[in-house]
Amino acid sequence: MKTAAFLMVVVGIVVLRLKSNRNNVCKTFEDYYSNRDENPNCYYNPDHELEVPEIVMRYGYPIEEHNVTTSDGYILTVFRIPHGIHTKTTSKKPVFLQHGLAINSGSFLITGRKSLGFMLADAGYDVWLGNFRGSKYSNNHVYLDNQSEAFWNFSIQENGLYDLPAQINFVSNVTKQKIAYLGYSMGTTAAYIYLSTYPDEKKIDMLIGLAPAIYFHDVDFIEFFSKIWVVVAAPIQFITNGKMYPRMGTMFKYLCLPYPIQMELCQLFDMLIMGFSYAENDPVT
Fold this sequence. Notes:
Elements: H1 2-17, E1 25-26, H2 29-32, E2 42-43, H3 52-58, E3 64-69, E4 74-81, E5 94-98, H4 116-122, E6 126-130, E7 140-141, H5 156-175, E8 179-184, H6 186-197, E9 204-210, H7 220-227, H8 229-240, H9 244-256, H10 260-274
């Protein structure tokens, strides 16, 4: 035990003495493993550290912020970009964008003016950005403390059964139009749950799935993890108190991004889940 503790202290000292890179975006994955502050292929993108309203206003777009309460008491934040920067009115239908696992609606806005949210707004669409419970912008409840285990006792099932109906109904009531739904990863999973549970809902007339997540039997890491879950569930629960969303974001920010030597290990862990294909992953995002 003493030897292990000593090694942990040594590793900690070494990591702290490493040069922490400010540049947070690179053009290739290999560039991340270098000294990013001296690499011409890397740069600093402030959007990765700004709030959604700050990002939107930084590029000159209008922004609205709405609170929506689900039937089981979670308070969700829905952002709206009603039109582009060159128009004052919305000319096309509402588009609802829903993020994936462990991220938030800002993921649709972090690549500058070529971000999907801005491109849709400039094309004349009424852009709505949803946020699942537990994410950065949907971290409150009518009566539950967001530090309690009860607050975090939910799964993707609740995202589809409660979060999407509340958000979609709100957008429908405001716009009085059919909605085009665009989900990414877990955002598609929740959509399939929502639409299969409420087949008579007619508020969505178009569903676009980016990296749709339905079956996981081909993901070896998840299959392996499911087999050992009985063993690891208790320590994971103890460490996170069930708060997977904020913990995962914090881990990446402080354990992966600052130090190039750690980026490759973090990338390896990510690809164990997402698949070993650099061609299908965007290093910029």
